[in-house]
Amino acid sequence: MKLPIILALIITSSSLASSLSVSSEINHQKRYVNDQFQGQTLTVYNSSDYIDEELISAFEEEYGVKVNYYTFDTNETMYNQLTLQKEGTYDLVCPSEYMIQRLVSEDLIIPIDRSKLDVYNTYAAQNIKNKLDEMYTTRVKDDGTYYTLGDYAAGYMWGTMGIVYDPEYVSREDVKTWDVFWNPEYYKMASIKNSMRDTYVVGILHAYRDELNEGKAKFEAGEITGDEYNDIVQEIFNRHGEEDIALVKQELISMKENIYGFEVDSGKNDIITGKIKMNLAWSGDAVYSIDTAAEEADKYLEYAVPEEGSNIWYDAWCLPKGANEDLAYAFINYLSDPENAAINMNYIGYTSFIASESVFDQVVSWYGAHEYFEGTTYYSENEDVVHYNDSFYLCINDSTGNLPTDEEYFEELSEEDWPLTEPVDLSYYFEGNLQEGKQPIAYPYEDSANQLEAQYPTQEIINRCAFMNDFGEDNGDVVIMWSQVKASTNMIPYYVILGVGFFIVIAYFVIKLIIDKREKKYYQQ
Amino acid sequence: MRFRFQRKYLAIPYLVFFLLFIIVPVFLIIYYAFTDRATGLPSISNLVNFFSDRTNVDVLVISLVFAMATTLICLLIGYPIAYILADKKYNKNAVIVTLFIMPMWINFIIRTGATRDLLTWIGLGGGTHPVFATLVGLVYNYLPFTILPLYSTMLKMDRSLIDASYDLGANPFQTFTKVIIPLTKPGIISACTMVFMPTISSYVISDLLSEYNIVLFGSYIDLYFNQSNWNFGSFMALIMLLLVGLSVLLTRKFDKSEDVRTSLW
User: Fold this and answer.
1) N or C, fewer C-beta in 10 Å, chain B?
2) CA of A206 to nearest chain B CA: how many angstroms apart?
3) Per CATH, is A26-157+313-352 categorized as 3.40.50.20?
4) Do the chains contact at B58 and A256, CB–CB below 8 Å?
5) Residue-wise pLDDT tens digits, B206-243
6) Confidence (pLDDT) at B70
7) What is this model's ipTM?
8) What is the arithmetic mean of pLDDT over A385-391?
9) Inter-chain contacts counted by CB atoms under 8 A, chains A and B
10) With an 8 Å Cβ cutoff, are A275 and B125 in contact?
11) A96 φ, ψ to 5°?
12) Rounded distance between C-alpha atoms, residue A323 and residue A90, angstroms
């Protein structure tokens, strides 16, 4: 362990020196010059590996503040810490949607002042941002309506839940339904998250699959709208009465017999090494698995959101009571900056709430070709490909405003290197956030179309995804159900072994007693 | 009054440690175990809940069986090894003993991670053989704890007694049961306690190696702690504490005739 520490010291000290020498230049380029916070401290509490830490140092430098950055592994850990520490310990926390609901009901966080989040308001994907306002808390406003999640939180990352699978072993048809985890054809091939809520999602969707499929059929027949269909999924999703819990318990116990096991964080690597062929995963982890598998193991993985429906989740910034509010808003705005959001998303791999043009350009560069737009800069380093006049061109020299037919900057691709010619429409996310006239479409490469869909699902997928409210009062019952599922196993051998063990011990003592008595008698004679 | 250094002051750090990390936590556990989660008032609801759901007792039984099985297997493997190691003929400079103890130098989580990969590679991983994989992991981790106490008692054993028993007409089996086992009894007992007690509460090994398919009592407590149900978790921790205490008492009873104690406990 010594060596890396020394290395780290050398690296930080050298980068410190270099940053000092150029600091006078950076000062002029500061985008958020603001001395109002000089010398203040911001304490941030976030999931581990959930930020590009260079952004934190950059924030510290630009604002002249100190950021204490702490991380947690699960929402529950965060909750425990937040309740144990005294008020005002943290200025900013980033829990998931259901935990925000719990924090609101327990009066641990304060509403945000939306007007102070101007950068966030400008660059967030409006459709996704509005979803936060569809989720209610238990707290009532003065006018009698309930506060929404959007009143308490500013979105950070979001995604769906689905299945990462190895198409070599698992058929694409089979992963279209959650039933794949119960499918004996894939006996001991799938692993599930060792998380109560995520597993509950699978259980409840499988338990009510008939109802869900009925709703889907109605939607496809045009009898109901997408929103009405989503309401059906939403309602089924949030069933947690006594009977529902019992039903889910049955489902999960029977599933447990068929799957490989549960995993905490090893699933995304296990599918790469081939220990498992299928894994319940969040879209961001799925993107990571697919990427790493392609790079390191030369393996092609895919991600699918089953047809019955699935979970859409949000992680968002909240202000605990006693927070340094203004500095916290400044930090959220800083992360929402169009460029910074792209840098951050590049580092984490999850889908950001921010749908700025930089994010768009970056995502399109990752997964496919751009539609040519004269105001965009294309980079040879990114191997940017543009679509122009029914043909594709590779950027060989960084270019702004040069037509793809200009051979100094672009090279025409031969047809076998073309991406898919059918464009993917991303207007649901980027509408209104791009320059005038720039179309929010991408031409993904054949083997990354799936990844693009994992990161930015089609509207059809969004329609069948629902969020899952906090279990509230029923949480205790769900915990008991979950512990019973986890512990469920055939108990007979255990009781038999225990019985035999006790029997042997008792028999030993009895025999010893008899022998001792006999020997005593023998010696007495 | 002038401060005069006395030798008893040297005990202060230990006393502070003892109070902070042993006494206070035990009282905290007891406090949480007998208060209600919702109201915070004293109650026995945790006790009632524990015994009214059979799953809780089942998990306890699973843990007990795993602890028993691990102890037995460790003893069966460790006893002959310790016997051979204690023989100067085979183990000249205690090199082999060091080899057997060496795995303990590496953190057990790293070793368990490697064991997991190895078992999956030979097709006996936790996904398909959870019980086997867990037992392998537990035995592998606790074997050194069996060998060490056995080895140290066997070193002290007077080997001429074995020759004496042969001279008096005992066959090898009788020599083993009537001479060697009684002479090494203290080692056996301390080996048993050193394996049995930690395995009852161990859970990282079983979690990792069984792919979370087998839930031992430790991870069951962890599940409730993670869901911030400190009260129920504490009650179960108390039960585990009582069980471990009971096993210590039992071994004391076994052990009381022996004046030489080689045990760590």
Assistant:
1) N
2) 21
3) no
4) no
5) 999 999 999 999 999 999 998 889 999 999 999 999 98
6) 96
7) 0.88
8) 91
9) 81
10) yes
11) -85, 170
12) 6
In this complex, the residue of A79, A262, A487 whose CB is nearest that of residue B228 is: A79
Q: What percentage of chain A has pLDDT greater than the value 90?
A: 75
Q: Are A147 and A140 in contact (CB under 8 A)?
A: yes
Chain B residues lying within 8 Å of A80, measured CB to CB:
228
Q: Name the DSSP letter for residue A77.
A: H
Residue B265 pLDDT? 43
Q: How far, in Å, are A78, A101, A110, B263 from residue A139 at the CA level?
A: 21, 9, 11, 60
**Across the interface, do B68 and A497 touch by the CB < 8 Å criterion?**
yes
Planar angle of CA A34, A38, A40, nearest 5 degrees: 125
Domain spans of chain B? 60-255
Q: Which one of B109, B196, B212, B246 makes the best mutation probe of the A interface by having the most chain A beta carbons within 10 Å?
A: B212
B169 to chain A, closest Cα gap in Å: 19
Please give the average per-residue pLDDT across A198-204, as a whole number.
95
Query: Which of A48, A52, A104 shows the shortest CA–CA distance to A77?
Result: A48
Q: Which of A214-223, A335-344, B85-94 has the lowest mean pLDDT?
A: B85-94
At B101-157, the pLDDT tens digits run 888 888 988 999 999 999 999 999 899 999 999 999 999 999 999 999 999 999 888
Q: For residue A497, what is the nearest residue in chain B, using CA coordinates?
A: B65
Give the closest of A475, A487, A498 to B59, CB-based.
A487
State the nearest Cα–Cα gap between A300 and chain B, in angstroms: 21
Beta-carbon separation of A261 and B59 below 8 A: no
What is residue A33's predicted lDDT score, i.e. its pLDDT? 58
Cβ-nearest to B212 among A262, A494, A497: A262
Distance of residue A263 Cα from the nearest chain B Cα, in angstroms: 6
Please write the tens of the pLDDT for every residue from A307-339. Answer: 999 999 999 999 999 999 999 999 999 999 999
B127/A498 CB distance under 8 A:
no
With contacts defined as CB-CB under 8 Å, which chain A residues touch B120? 275
Q: For the segment A4-39, what is each residue's pLDDT rounded down to a tens digit?
A: 443 343 333 333 333 333 333 333 345 555 678 888
pLDDT at B256 over 80: no
d(CA A316, CA B75) in angstroms, rounded, equals 54
Min Cα distance A487 → chain B (Å) is: 6
B213/A80 CB distance under 8 A: no
Indicate yes or no: CB of A484 within 8 angstroms of CB of B53.
Answer: yes
Closest chain B residue to the Cα of A255, Cα to Cα: B213
H or E stretch at A79: helix A75-84
At residue B228, the pLDDT reads 86
A81 interface with B at CB cutoff 8 Å: no
**Residues B171-196: b if buried by 16+ CB within 10 A, e if exposed:** eeeebeeebbeebbebbbbbbbbbbb
CATH of domain B60-255: 1.10.3720.10
For residue A329, count other CB atoms closer than 10 A to its CB.
Answer: 24
Sequence letter at residue A207: A
CATH node for A160-312+466-487: 3.40.190.10
The answer to whether the CB atoms of A494 and B58 lie below 8 A apart is yes
Q: What is the mean pLDDT of chain A?
A: 89
Largest CA distance in chain A: 118
Contact B223 A263 (CB under 8 A): no
Q: What is the pLDDT of residues A102-119, one digit of tens each?
A: 999 999 999 999 999 999
Of A83, A191, A489, the CB nearest to B211: A191
C-alpha Rg value of chain A to the nearest Å:
28
pTM above threshold 0.90 = no
Tell the residue number behind the tokens 């916070």, with chain if given: A37
Location of structure tokens 């958020």: A32
